[in-house]
Each structure stands twice: as structure tokens, then as C-alpha cells.
Design goal:
The chain is α+β, with helices and mostly antiparallel strands. The chain is built from 2 helices and 6 strands.
């Protein structure tokens, strides 16, 4: 079965400073338990803020290293998951369910991509 990487993009400037509400954490926990029991979830994690990140860029034959925060970034990768699903439609449906656990004030985009094997 194919594996899929889902990248969760968040607008750090408009995300709640205190992070996810306890209710959101509970809803996410229940969904993650369900997707794990279904044998779909292989790995998932949230990421630290971009202010704690470092970008390494190769351009024009030169490397540059830049520490965060990255002011030009509107959306950043806030988390990810790796799932194993029968097809992309199933991966997208699990992603839709995950996004629906969030309150209306969250601004989140998820990108689902199949992992190229071999």
C-alpha cells in the first residue's frame, strides 16, 4: 500500500499564542487513536515554531544558513503525518477529518503527497 506525507501548514502570526485548546487536543487525540487503530498512521508530530528553525539554502553554487524567524513566511509547516492508505482518496479523507477537529478561527492548509517508493 502506498504511503503519504501530509504537511500541515499554519499561519503562525494568526495562530493562538497558547496553542491548541484542551478541547481541540481531546478531539485530535481521539482521531489519532482511531487512525492508529485502523493501521493507517505510521508517524505524526507537531513542529517547533519557525523562530527556532534554521534554513540551509543552496543557490548559485553557494550555501547559506539563516536562523529563524523567517519574516517573509506567511504559512509554515506546523506538523506532519505519514500514513499508509489504500489510495490518495483515503489519505485525503483522513486529512479532512483532522482539519475538521480545529475550531473555526484556525487557518490551516494541508498538503497530501504520495511518497515515491524506490
Amino acid at each position: 500500500m502506498p504511503r503519504f506525507l501530509t504537511m500541515i501548514r499554519v499561519d503562525e502570526k494568526n495562530a493562538p499564542a497558547e496553542g491548541p485548546s484542551p478541547e481541540l487536543q481531546e478531539r485530535m487525540g481521539k482521531l489519532l487513536e482511531e487512525i492508529t487503530k485502523a493501521g493507517v498512521m505510521l508517524e505524526t508530530a507537531g513542529l517547533t515554531p519557525s523562530s527556532e528553525g534554521t534554513r540551509v539554502t543552496w543557490s548559485g553554487g553557494r550555501l547559506s544558513v539563516t536562523d529563524g524567524p523567517f519574516t517573509e513566511s506567511k504559512e509554515v509547516i506546523g506538523g506532519y503525518s505519514i500514513t499508509q492508505c489504500k489510495d490518495k482518496a483515503e489519505a485525503v479523507e483522513w486529512t479532512r477529518r483532522f482539519l475538521r477537529t480545529h475550531e473555526e478561527y484556525w487557518n490551516i492548509t494541508a498538503e497530501v503527497r504520495e511518497i515515491a517508493e524506490g
